[in-house]
Amino acid sequence: MTAPTAEPTDADLIKAHAAGDPHAFNELVRRHRDRMWAVALRTVRDPEEAADALQDAFISAFRAASNFRAESQVTTWLHRIVVNACLDRIRRRQARPTVPLPEQGHQEPAVPRDSMAERETRLVIKEALDELPEDQRAPIVLVDVEGYSVSETAEMLGIAEGTVKSRCARGRSKLAKLLGHLRNPAEEGDVPTYESKHGEGRR
């Protein structure tokens, strides 16, 4: 009886792709697409921009895979490419500012009061993240939202660990001011603050 073939690792898929396997990279994308999409969306805060950035990132990864040296995890390598693609999109968007469309329409279905309050809180946090400069938002997303360590984040962004810590500290300070009104308890109960919900992040 033939033993089952072990599933290839991410590193195996990178090597196979570099060697000319036409299916290896598609499998790598399938494994990590959802996680990379979440990172892109949290970084650029716009679904269309996130989709474009993710496409740019995967094209870059496809082309650069032969240069992967296995000095980091494949997921870390992919995250770095996705974040850089997102930051490129943000810079282009800032160079060509546009007026955002309203997120709520007249045809939007009614939702229960609690769900509406939760949605409003998420929207306030989203808007607060939008207020952060791009150099602070990316570390905050990776450390406080995605849960990466400072060293992993530094590697993804190509900056020193001390820079990650200082940018996170400045970003958290600004978020605390922007979200300070959420600290006051509402009549129905306390509304969670950004810091209480996400913590101080791993150092």
From TrEMBL:
ATP-binding in keyword set: no
Tagged with keyword Transcription: yes
GO molecular function, one term: sigma factor activity
Matches recorded under Pfam families: Sigma70_r2, Sigma70_r4_2
Assigned keywords, A-Z: DNA-binding, Sigma factor, Transcription, Transcription regulation
Ranges for region Disordered: 182-203
SUPFAM superfamilies, per database record: Sigma2 domain of RNA polymerase sigma factors, Sigma3 and sigma4 domains of RNA polymerase sigma factors
Gene Ontology BP terms: DNA-templated transcription initiation
RNA polymerase sigma factor 70 region 4 type domain: residues covered: 124-175
Occurrences of domain RNA polymerase sigma-70 region (ranges): 28-95
Similarity comment: family membership: Belongs to the sigma-70 factor family. ECF subfamily.
PANTHER family with a match to the protein in the record: ECF RNA POLYMERASE SIGMA FACTOR SIGM (PTHR43133:SF50), RNA POLYMERASE ECF-TYPE SIGMA FACTO (PTHR43133)
The protein's name: RNA polymerase sigma-70 factor (ECF subfamily)
Originating species: Prauserella rugosa
